[in-house]
Amino acid sequence: MDKNHVTRRMLVLGSLALVATGCSSIGRTIESPIASRTRIDPRYRRQEVAYDGGEAPGTIVVNTEERYLYYVQGGGWAVRYGIGVGEEGRTLKGKATIGRKAEWPSWTPTESMMRRKPHLRQYAGGVSGGLHNPLGASALYLYRGGNDTMFRLHGTNEPWTIGQAVSSGCIRLTNDDIVDLYSRTPVGTTVLII
């Protein structure tokens, strides 16, 4: 058996495996080698999907109930990211804008977070940016009326929480996904949280 025959066979078998796992032409998974090693439910992996929400291209739509964030591309398409959301009742709703961006941001828990979760007091002085930081690789800071809402779209060092309601209100993405979203999103971008 020659080398080309084996390659064609592997291509056909690989394609059949994708079809059997539910991949279709409706959405196209967009994945890096890092993302493929992250423990996350496959339905929350980043992919390009059909989208008819009516928002302008470049808008970010966060659907907290579905646990998806959509980056509207226009032409009936969006990039869809799986997200972790705030615990019950701890979510920002409505419109905001990206007022600031940071790579490997530092993090300091808010006073209300420390009241609810006293173990966070150990971080009252702040946590420097890095792999140990709960904000992950990047953060997009949500503002209203020129004021910081204290809510963020950010990475996480706990990727297995994507798809769950576990945060203090911020929207979590895998580090790979927040880096991708960060690269697409300028300061001033409109964010709609529903």
How does this model look, in words?
By secondary structure, the protein is an alpha+beta fold. It is built from 4 helices and 12 strands; from the N terminus they run H-E-H-E-E-E-E-E-E-H-E-E-E-E-H-E. The chain has helices at about 5-20, 35, 110-115, 175-185, and strands spanning about 30, 45-50, 60-65, 70-75, 75-80, 85, 95-105, 140-145, 145-155, 165, 170, 190-194. The strands form 2 sheets. A 10-stranded mixed β-sheet has the order 1-2-5-4-3-12-7-8-9-11, covered by helices on one side. The longest helix has 18 residues, at about 5-20. The chain starts with a helix and ends with a strand. Mean pLDDT is about 85; it is low at about 1-35. One of its GO terms (molecular function) is glycosyltransferase activity. Keywords: Cell shape, Cell wall biogenesis/degradation, Glycosyltransferase, Hydrolase, Peptidoglycan synthesis, Transferase. One of its GO terms (cellular component) is extracellular region.
Number of helical segments with 4 or more residues: 4
Give a short account of the largest sheet. 10 strands, mixed
Overall strand count: 12
Number of domains: 1
> What is the highest CATH level, the class?
Mainly Beta
Cα-based radius of gyration, to the nearest Å: 19 Å
Order of helices and strands: HEHEEEEEEHEEEEHE
Distance between the termini: 56 Å
Strand content: 25-35%
The 3D shape can be described as globular
Within the CATH hierarchy, at the fold level, what is the topology?
L,D-transpeptidase catalytic domain-like
Name given to the CATH architecture? Beta Barrel
The portion of residues assigned to helices is 10-25%
* pLDDT < 50 runs, ≥5 residues: 1-37
Sheet/helix structural class: alpha+beta
Average of per-residue pLDDT values: 83
